[in-house]
Amino acid sequence: MRLPKIFLALLLTALPLPAPTAALHESEVGIVDWHKQLVGVPLIGSPNTAPLFHRFSVGQGVTKSVVVTATGSNVLAAIDPVDGSVAWRHVFDAEDPIALFKKHKDVIATLSGPGGSTLRTFNVLTGHLLLEKRLHALNTGSLFEPGDLGLGIAFVPGSTPNESEQLLVLANGHTLRRVDARTGEVVWSWTSEDQSSLIIYTRIIPTSSTIYLIGLAKSVKSYTLHATTFSTQSGTLIASRNIPSSLSPASATTPPSSAFLALSLFPSPNTNTTTSSSHETPPRLLWLEQKTLHTLPLSPSLSHTKPGAYKGVAYKELVDVGLAEGYGMFVAVLGDGSGKVIGVNGEGKGEESAVKAFWEFSESADSPRYTPSIYAGGLDKDGYPYVSRIYWSHVLQKSSIHTYAPHLSKGEGLVTGFTLPFDTTMHGIIVHAAIDTANPSPYRVLTRVVLTTSTGAVQLWQQDQAQWTREEALAEIAVAEFVELPEGKSVGVEVDLGGEESFVGRVARQVLDAKDFPQYLVKFVKRFATGSYASTSTSTSIPPTNTNTTTATTGPLTRDTFGFRQMLVAATPQGKVYGLDSSSGRIVWSRVLGHGWAAEIGATVLPIKLFVTRGVGDVDVDVRGGGDAGGPQVVLVTQRKAENTLVDTVIFHIDAMTGDDVRKVSPSGDIFQGLDIISGPIIEAFLLQKQTKTVILLDEFMQVYLYPDTEAHKADLEAASPSLYFPVRTGGPGKRQLMGHQLLLNPELSNRFVGHPTWTFSLPANEEILTLIPSRRGPVASVGKVLGNRSTLYKYLNPHLMTLTTSSLTSHPPRCAIYVVDAAKGSIVYHATLPTSAGVCDVKATITENWLVYSYFDEDFTGVGQSKGHRIVSVEFYEGVKPDDKVKSSDMSSFSNRTTEVTAYEQSYVTPYGITTLTTTSTKFGVTAKDIIFATTNSKIQSLPRRFLDPRRPNRKLTNEDVEEQLIQYEPVLQDHPQRVLSHSYQVNNVRRIVTAPALLESTSLVFAYGLDLFLTRVSPSGTFDVLNENFNKAQLVLTIVALAVAIVVTKPMVQRKRLRERWYQ
Amino acid sequence: MSTTLEYATIDTSRWRNLPPPPGFSASSSTSRAPVRSSGASQASYASLKEKRAWDFAIGPAKSLPMQAFMLYMSGGGVQIFSMGIVFMLLMTPFKNIAAINAAFAPFAPTNASANSIMTLPLQKLVYLLCNLLTLAVGLWKCRSMGLLPTGTGDWLAFESRGTPPEISLL
C-alpha cells in the first residue's frame, strides 16, 4: 500500500485534482474521530463554586440528583452521579468569569463577570438558559478578591409553585435587586447610598418578611460586620447598623468573609412537629473574634442586644459545609484541630443555649497519623442534614469517612463510617468532598461522596465502591505530543551488529526463518481469498476480545497498519501525566509527578516542554550491545514551585508506552519522582537532534545543562556548538525583547557551556514580544513551485525562520505587529503592522516551509467599503524577485548576503469566525498538500485547503496559465463551508492548541485539539490517494481476472486449431 | 505434377520465306534512325529522373500546409488524435532520413551508384531540410502542448539541497 515518494509525487502531479471534497461522512463519525467532553477542575476555594449534590423533583414524587459545580475552566456543569457523564454544561466567556452559583429546586442561578455583572438562570434538568440579564456595565463592576465577595444570590422563600421563583441578587457589593427568575423583571432594587464607603455587602439572608443583608466594614485594624434589613415585598429599608464585632480570619490569606456565618432555618422538613416554632426562629450571625465564637440573633429592626460570646473554647476556623443557610449547621474547628458540629438550637431559650454543639468528631485533632479533616454537608431525600468528615490515615493508607446524622437515633444523633480504598498514587490527595446521603432504615446511612483531588480528578464513591472517575485535569493540558508506536512483533529481521555472518550461518538462519513460511502462506491465501485487509476505518479498532480486559492484560499498544494509533502524552499543571491512545482517547497510563524534597511543604509542578527523545526508528546509543531494545521515550521538563517560593527545574524521563520511569528510580504504580536538574528556574529548553537527541536546558545564568548527561551527548553538543544558534526572550513582563545566543565553553571559568548573546532584536521601547512561534519543521517534498509558464518560484526555505507577534499598546494608536525573523542572524524577513482588537493584541500565526498564515480581528473601519471583521492573511516567501531566481536558501549559510533576497506574496481574506488557534497538517514525506486546521470561536475545528489561501490567487479573470496552475480567482470572503468542519456536531470549546502528526500513510495526518475538550480526528488534504477506497469491489476484480484466465484457457486450443486450418487450406 | 509447353519441336522453317503482308513497310525497321533517337530519349529520361528527384525532395514541404491544418484541427489538448499526429510528425522525418538512399535510388542517374550518399546530393540536402522542417513543426506542436521540458519547472524534481551550515534551536 505504500508507494515510493517519487511515485507519489508523480501521482499527485499527474492526477487532475478537482476541488477536494474532503467532507466528513456521517458514517465516519466516531470511527475516524473521538471527542471527550470535559468540564474542568472544580473551583473548590469557595462553597459558592465547589461541587455539591442537588436533588430536585422531576414530578410524580420522583427525584433526581446531579452534581453541580463551577470549574476553573469557567464552566458551570451538571454531572450525572450515576455514570459520571456530563448532564449539561455552560461555558462562560473568558471575560465573564463565573463567581458563584446557587441552586433552588429546578433552577440554578449564577453571577459572573466583574462585580457580578451578569445574572443567569438555568434549568437544572436540561441546562437550558432561562434568563440572562446584565446587571451593570462591565467597566463599572468592582473586582473583589476572592471572586465571590460582594456578590450573593438568594431565593425568596415562600413563592408558591405556580408563580415563578423570585431571586434576590447582590452585585458589586452594594446593589440589591429582587429579580423574577423567569422574566428577569426587576421588582425593586436598592443601592447603598454611600457607595464609596468601606462596607461591602456580601451575604443575603432572606426570610418571608424581612431580608437581612450582611456586609463587612473595614475598620482600622480589622473588619466589622454591618447589617441592613429590608422588607421582602417592597424592598423598603428598615434599618442599617454596625454590629459591634471585630473579625479575625484564621490566617492572613483567608478572606474575612470566611470568618463569619449567617445561620438560618428553613421550615423543618418534619412538618408535623415544630412548624410554628421554626418559622419564628430568627436568623443568627456567628463570627470568630479573638478565637472566640460570638453570636447574635437578628431582628428586622436590628435592635439587638449585646452579642453572646462562648468563652473558654478557642476556635480556629468556621467551616460552612453548605448547611448554614436553611439548616443552621456548621463545623467549627477547635484550636487543636478537632471538628465540632454546631447548630442552632431550635428549642432552647435564652442567648446562652441558642447555639449548641451537636457532636464532636472523635480523633479529629491534629495528629501525625492522619491528615487534617475535610468536612462536607449533605441532605437526604427527605431534606434532613448530614455532616461528614473525611481524612486520610497514614497508618491504614486509606481514607475514612464519618457521617453524622443529627436527627437519627431518636434525635440523639447517629455516626456511621467506612473506609475508602482511595488510590493516592493515582490521584494525589483529596482536597474537597461533597456528600449525598440516604437513610433506608433507622440505623443505616448510605453515603455517596464526590471527591475532588489535587490532580484534578472528580470521583464518586458509593460507600466504599468507586463508581466513576473523571480526569478533569485533561481540560487544562499544558503540553501534549504524539509519540509513534512500535510494531507489534518484529518478524524476521534481526540485525546482527557483530560483523558479517558466515555462509553456513546464513543458510542455517534462513532455514530457520523458513519454518514460518507455511503459516505465512496459509495466512496469505486466506487474506487474499476473503479480502480481509485492514481498511482505514477498521485498522485501529480493537478486536472485540480485548475490549473488556484491562490494559495490564492486553500488553503494550502496538502500531496499526496505517499508523493511526499513536500514543498521546499529555502533561497537566495539576502534576499528572497521561498517556492516551490516539485511536480511542482511552487513558492507557497516568502518573502523578512527585514533588521531590518539596513533598513536605507542598508544591506545584508546571510542565514547560515535552520532547520525544526517542522515536520508533531511533537507534539508542546509550544502550550498547542490544538487550533493552527500548520503546519510545519522552522527556518532560517542568518547573516545580514549592510553597516556600523556591523554584526548581525538574526532569521526568518517561517511557511513552507504559509511563514507567526510564531512570528506574520510581517503581511503576508509585508516584513518579523526577530529577532535579537545575536548582532554580529555567530560561529555555531545546532539543538538539544530531546523532543523539539531547535536551539542552538553560538556567538563569545561561549555563547549559544536558539531559541525558553522558559522554556521547556531550561530544555531540561540543561538535555542534560552533554552529549552534538560539534565540532567548529576555526582560520582564511589559518589555520582553529577544536576543540571539551562541554557546561557548571556557574551561578556565566553568565546565559548562555558557550562552552568550550575539544579536539583539531591537524593537521600539514600547513594543513587547508576545509570542514566539517557531517554524514547523518537516520534510520538504519540493523546493519550488512551478508556474503555468513552466518557470519556477523557488521557495524561501530558510530553516531558521520563526514568527514573533508583538504589541505596542502604549503607542498612538496602539498597534500589534508580526515579524518573521531568522533565528540565527536576527534579520527580519517579513514585517506587518496590525490593528489591535478591543485594546489587546490577539494575533494567531503558524509558519511552515515558506508559508505563513496569521489571523487577527480588524476593528478599524475608516471609510466606505471597509468593514470590521476577522481577517486571515496568507503569506508565501519565494527566493529572489521574480520566477527562476534561485539562491538555494535551504542550505545557504544564514550569514550570506543573499538571505534577504526574498519576495513575499500575500493576500488577506475575511473569515466569518474568529480563530482561537491554527496550525497546518503534517505528513510523513511532505508531499501531500497542507491544509490549515483551525479552531473557531464558535467551538468548531475546521480545515481550509491551501488552494483557498493561496496568496497568488489572481484578482482578475483567470488566464490559461492560471487555470493550468489550478489557481482560483480571488474572493475576499472565505465562505463558511460546513463540509470543512472536522468536528461534526461536537462542541470543541476553548481550543488552546492543535497538534498534528503524520500517520504512516502519506495522505493522512492526525489532528488533536485540546482546550476544554479533547478532540482527535484524521484528515487527508489531498484525498486518500495511497489507499484503496473502502467501496472498492475486490470480488469483482478477482472474478474478472479469474474469468479472463478461464477464457484464455478455453480459447487457446480453439485459436491454435483455427490457425492450423488456415495454414492448411490457404 | 506440372506440364510444360515445348516450343522447340515446332518446325519454323516452313514459314520463313513467306512474303510480308500488303502495306507492310520494311523501312521502319532500318537501323540508322533508332541510333539517333536513342541518344535523345536517354537525355530526356535522365532529366525526367532529376525532375522527379526534385519533386520527391520537396515533397515533405508540400505536405506541410495540410499537416499544419491537421494540427490546427486536432487542438491543443493531449488526446489520442493529436498525439497520433504529433507522433507521426516526429517519427516520419527520422524514418525518411534513415531511408534517404533507398528513397532516391530510383532517381539515380544510370551511371551513378544508386546507394551512394553522393548521388543526387542537392536533392538529398533539400529533402533533409524539408524533413527537418516537418520535425520542427512537430516540435513546435509539442511545445505548444507543453510536452517539451523547457522550463526550470520541468527539472525541479531533480534539484536537491544539502543541510544548512548553521543549526538553530527553537
Automatic annotation (TrEMBL), chain A:
Any single Gene Ontology cellular-component annotation: EMC complex
Keywords linked to the UniProt accession: Endoplasmic reticulum, Glycoprotein, Membrane, Signal, Transmembrane, Transmembrane helix
GO biological process: protein folding in endoplasmic reticulum
Highest taxon in the source lineage: Eukaryota
Signal peptide feature range: 1-23
Primary site of residence: endoplasmic reticulum
Region (Disordered): 536-556
Residue span, ER membrane protein complex subunit 1 C-terminal domain: 848-1064
Similarity comment text for this entry: Belongs to the EMC1 family.
Protein name stated in the entry: ER membrane protein complex subunit 1
TrEMBL record, chain B:
Pfam families, per database record: EMC4 (PF06417)
Keywords: Endoplasmic reticulum, Membrane, Transmembrane, Transmembrane helix
GO cellular component: endoplasmic reticulum membrane
Record keyword Membrane present: yes
Residues covered by region (Disordered): 13-36
Subcellular location: Endoplasmic reticulum membrane
Cited InterPro entries: TMEM85/Emc4
Topology of the protein relative to the lipid bilayer: Multi-pass membrane protein
Transmembrane helix among keywords: yes
Domain of life: Eukaryota
Membrane spanning stretches: 69-91, 125-142
Main location: endoplasmic reticulum
Composition skew (Low complexity), residue ranges: 24-36
Similarity section: Belongs to the EMC4 family.
Protein name listed in UniProt: ER membrane protein complex subunit 4
Organism (species): Piloderma croceum (strain F 1598)
